[in-house]
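Board notes (copied after class):
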Amino acid sequence: MSSLYFVIAAIAGLAVGYVLRNLLAKTKIGGAEGKAEKILEHARQQEKELLLTAKDQAIKITEEAKKQETGFRQQILRTEQRLEKKESDIDERGKELDRGKKDLEAKTEDLKKVKEELQQSRERQLEALEKIAKLSREEAKTLLMDHTEKSMQDDLLALTRKLIAQAREDADREAQDIVTQAIERVSAEVSNETTTSTVTLPNEEMKGRIIGKEGRNIKAFEQMLGVEVIVDESPDTVIISGFNSVRRYVAKVTLEKLIKDGRIHPAKVEEAYEKAKKEVGQIIKEAGEEAVYDLGITAFPPKLVQLIGRLKFRSSYGQNVLKHSIEMAKMGAIMAEEIGADVQTVKQGALLHDIGKALDQDMEGTHVELGVQIAKKFNLPEKVINSIQAHHGDVEYQSIEAAIVDACDNISGGRPGARKDSFEQYIKRLEELEKIANSFPGVEKTYAIQAGREIRVFVEPSKMDDWAAMKLAREIANRIQSDLKYPGEIKVQVIRELRVVEYAR
């Protein structure tokens, strides 16, 4: 019985649980549906608001587009009006041009008629003049042209003289100022060198020791050093003769060392020779370094500086080449500063213009050719190479710097006391000057004066007028400049003197 109650109670509990569960589920479902209804209502409200906002924006955009369309239509209308006005103006201008063209054609026709009338009047006047003057038209024309040419020639001659005199005066004044400044600021010694060097001996006995037994010492010395030792009757001196100046100086130093040592024999000659070569090499190096340092040139390689130093033992016309080159570089630097040229280029060109003379005693070729080869070997600038080539007139100047170098060469070589020409060269130059002047037609006589610095040319006045005399002076100067080589400048003076002689009987 109790089991039955237990079963009934269990069934009743299950039924009650089921009912409660259904009630709870219905309650939850109802709450969820309410929430869902609220969410849907809220979404519907937002949808209405968005639609209203979108409509407002669409209305605004439409109104703005209408305003822009109206503005564009007005702008197009204004543009069309301007174009119509321009077309109207163009049509009006075209009409005016047509009217102007017609007027111009009418005036051209009138002018043509006037010219024809003037030509006819001129013909009538010329015919009347021919009758009065008894000259044909061609004869009158020739007479008029001759008179005009003579008048113009006189005026041109006077003007030419005036312009040339003024140009020369201005150029001479400016050139004198520049050259004077350059010369005043440059001081250079003049060293007279020949092909011989003299060595002083302590006594006459030393001559015998230099010669040696059967001349073996002097023979070894001459063969080793490539010079000639002259032992004559001059007291306490011997002379070293040689064309190569460096070799001659090495020989002099070698002999002085042997004399100082007192022991002279072939072995000692060789030993002293090696020491002398090193000593002279150092002198050459120091001379080159001193030259470039003094001029402020830092771009030269050591081997080129060594070649510059060799010029210390080279002379030309009795003038030391190194001192001459340094003097030129200093004068050229002053000139370049005055006229605005490249100072460094002028310095380098002046210092190296005779660099070929450092090797011309050992190698074939002129010093200009050798100098150009040296400059190209060391990759020097083209302006410097041209300065070397042009300083003897072999090529044209390619820069103002080359012209300055050539001018400095003439100044340094042509100043008093700088160089010594031989008597034969002096006479030859004077003869060549007179020969060139006498080769021109109309020259009566010629005199070279002022040691060849001036040439006076007398012409026949009956065969040459003033204009031809001026032309002759220029032609003679050009011929001298092209045919002769000379330091400085030569003044050409043409003299036309008319002498009239009559006798009263």
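Comment from the instructor: Residues 423-496 form a domain with the GMP Synthetase; Chain A, domain 3 fold (CATH 3.30.300.20). The first strand starts at residue 196 and ends at 200.
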